[in-house]
Each structure stands twice: as C-alpha cells, then as structure tokens.
Amino acid sequence: MSSVTPRANYRVLEKFSFLAVARIFLEILQAAFLIYLARKSTLAYGNLMLALGIGTILSVITDFGLNQLLVLRLNAHDKRKTGIVSNITTLKSALFALGWLGTAVFVHWQGYDPVLKRAVLVMGIGFGFQALANTFFVVLQVNDRQGMEAAIRAVGAFFGFGFGILALFLDAPLWVVSFFKVIDGLVCCVPAALAAIRVAPSGFGPLRLAGMAWDRQGNGRIRLYYGCPDSE
C-alpha cells in the first residue's frame, strides 16, 4: 500500500501549478516582446538573439553546477549548511565577473558594431543577476516556497519585458532595450535574496570559500575543502 497520502499529492500538484503558471506568464510576455521586436526590425531581432545566446553561455559559466551542490548542502542536518548560500553566491559572483570580462574581450575581438557590443554586455549583466537569483530560488524550493518563487518570477518578467516593449515602442536603441534582462534579473534577485534570508538564515553565515586542511584520519595528506573543513 502506498505511503503517499492524497494530501501530499495535492501539495506536489499545488507547487507544480505555481511554477507552471509563472512559466506560462513569462513565455507569453517573452513571445509578445520578441514578435514586436521582429516586426520593428529583423536586424535588431537577430542581434538580440545573438546577445541572448552569448548571455546564456555566460549564465552556464556562472552557475557551473553550483545549484546542485547547494541542494545537497541545504538538505544536510549539520554544520555543512552554515554559510553555504553566502559561499555559493560569492563564488558565482566571481565566476560571473570573469565570464563577463571574457565576454567583453570576445565581442571586441569579433569586431561587433558599438550598439551590438553594448547590447551583449548589458544582457550579460542581466544573466548574471538571473544566475544569482537562481541560487536564492533553490533555497526557496528546498524550503517548500514554490509559490513565493513563482510570484517573484512573474513580477520580474512583468517589469522586465514591460520595459522592453515600452523601449521598443519609443524606438530606443537595442542596447537600451537590452536592459529588460537587467530589470528582470534584478527584480528577481533582490526579493528572492530577502526571502531566502528569512527562510534559511543559517545559509548566510561567514564566508569560507575554499582552503586546505589536514586529513582527519591523520595520514598526513592535505586535502581541499569547500565551506567548512569538517564538511567533507
């Protein structure tokens, strides 16, 4: 006989529905924005898609599989979770800074026109904020706050794509339109960070990103650690 109760099934469906509705809302706004952009200028549409592609690569570099590590540490019942969110956020920020600088070098090397260069770099900042927001969204997911996550994502999409559509309507240059991603990421990042601090305060402890420690078994080996030296 299954141990899963109808109440548990309902809660799973409820959490899924929150995120599904937010995703549908985001996709509708994104479709409206991209269709409007394509009708305004096919060249601008192509350049924006290029900027989005480069930004996606930068986002992958920034995340670097750290969200999976965060899930494992947040589910731990010892001091391995202490300060882990701060650690992951700091590490992601460093990876983003390096990736963004690499992107700046790349677009200069490719000889893109100035408007496209600025669009790519502005879009990259937005993807950086989004990568940081994903860290806090993981905290909310682990603590069963999918409804809060969905609301934050929906608000971010509304303000971000709303700005983008308004900028297109006003015939703003592409690099100004690209700020839609910055607004989306920032509106998601700040409330998500505040919510994560409230639901998981222990995750925002002192920073100890990496270092070396003697093996606890006393065999003289030096090992790398992440977070607390006793956490591995």
Could you walk me through the main structural features you see in this protein, from its secondary elements to its overall organization?
By secondary structure, the chain is mainly alpha-helical. The chain has eight helices and two strands; from the N terminus they run ααααααααββ. It has helices spanning 6-40, 42-63, 66-74, 84-110, 114-142, 146-169, 174-177, 179-199; strands at residues 210-214, 222-226. Strands 1-2 form a two-stranded antiparallel sheet. Helix 2 packs across helix 4 (84-110) and helix 3 (66-74) runs antiparallel to helix 4 (84-110).
What is the first-to-last residue Cα distance?
Answer: 38 Å
Output the strand order for the largest sheet. Answer: 1-2
- The radius of gyration is 21 Å
Helix content: over 70%
* Unreliable residue runs: 209-232
| Basic shape | globular
Strand element count:
2
Element-by-element helix/strand order? HHHHHHHHEE
In terms of structural class, how would the helical and strand content be classed?
mainly alpha
Strand content: under 5%
- Tally of individual helices: 8
**Average pLDDT:** 83
Largest sheet: 2 strands, antiparallel
